[in-house]
Give the backbone structure.
Amino acid sequence: MPEQRELELSDAEIRHCARVRAHLGEQIAAAGGWVSFEQFMDTVLYAPALGYYSAGAQKFGAGGDFTTAPELSPLFGGCVARQCAEVLSALDAGGILEIGAGSGRLAADVLARLEILGQLPARYWILDISADLRERQRLRLAQQVPHLLDRVRWLDRPLQEPFDGLILANEVLDALPVARFRWHADAPLELGVAIEDGRFAWRARPADRVLAAACLRLAAAGGGWDEGYESEYCPRLQAWTHSVTHSLRTGAVLWFDYGLPRSQYYLPERHEGTLLCHFRHRAHGDVFLNPGLQDITAWVDYTSLAEASREAGFTLGGFTTQSYFLAGLAVDQEMRALAGDDANEFARLSNQARQLMLPGEMGERFKAMAWLRGLDVPLSGFALKDLRHTL
């Protein structure tokens, strides 16, 4: 993967990176000189007070490192709210749990639109490990929907009490730590992290039995790989998704993220995998740059996510692209509702809709998936194009 030249950092950012590097160095030394990339990614993203999602820095929107669909336009949250309203209406009551609420924009937009639709949830929980992000979410909600703030509760661990309603997760799965591997037909290798000449470096060792078996399955699904093919695999996806969804008694889980079905994800031509870093709205492939300051992501294997739904006791309710999801929920009606008679506002929203829906923008790369439990109702967001057969 190409290296990215370091951008100028502030003194505070330089010190933060030094602390993260020192912490990682201690981990690597304690492990005998090598840690898995999964452990490295977990540390640089989630280590308390050090990781990207745990330390206090703006991550979302124009002043952060990347822009998500809710940050781009209220149209996304409005359409998600329409889908939530269908489910809440079928249940005749219920709550919403959002996992990893980012800046709080999606929560604010969903609550505002559900109020207009007459389907406000009794409770809106937000599961987020970052105290800094929870405070940003609280400020956003207090600014945008202050009269609904008393419905919101923050959690620092998965909800334990059973509830009916919905679970929402937008751009959460792509940040789950992944294992990295290199294909050799006789013995797959796991790529981990060591220190060479004072710098982080990739180092390979034989994959264990579990990862080697996963590589065989993925290679078969992708159609076979050449020697040296590299990619990633998320070992914790099944257990993690079960842990955050087990409390849903009746209702739906809606996942939104960029990704592909397994047969497309692991094609031979995608021989460098999908790891990507984001820092100040620049995307690059150097995972060792600016540890603790940059995001690291990998695309979602939606076949694994579909398999996880069955293991967790759900049925797969739908799978489609973000473009078709928004179209199925009448994004054009959302535009008219938000713009009213303001032609300039309608034009601005039209431009946002193009960014959300065009294939060259977010429309095809981002997918939507629904899990259902104890609920058998058609979901409008998945009615126009059913891609479940691709999984």
In short: Residues 11-30 form the longest helix (20 residues). The two ends are 28 Å apart (CA to CA).
